[in-house]
Design a protein that fits this description.
7 strands; mainly beta; Ig-like domain-containing protein; four-stranded antiparallel beta sheet
Length: 80
């Protein structure tokens, strides 16, 4: 089974990145922003995607494998 899913946003001088991490075997990650599929990162223990400057709304990291499925959604806000 998949462990807890953690989603976090980090800001640097010119870009934002969103990281999703979870525990489990043969994990597949899917990202959606406001219900639209963004991309499917590789299967590994942690994955990060970059966001465009004007991106806002709700971003979801969906984590699944052959045993279970977990999704976590956070609100994307502009960097300070």
């Amino acid at each position: 089974p998949i462990g807890s899913v953690e989603v976090s946003i980090s800001c640097s001088s010119n870009q934002r990145s969103v990281s999703c991490s979870s525990e489990g075997d043969q994990i597949i990650y899917n990202w959606t922003l406001n219900g639209k599929i963004l991309e499917q990162p590789p299967m590994d223990g942690k994955t990060t995607i970059l966001l465009n400057e004007g991106t806002d709304g709700n971003i979801s990291c969906s984590v699944k494998n052959h045993v279970s499925h977990v999704q976590k959604t956070i609100s994307v806000k502009p960097c300070p």
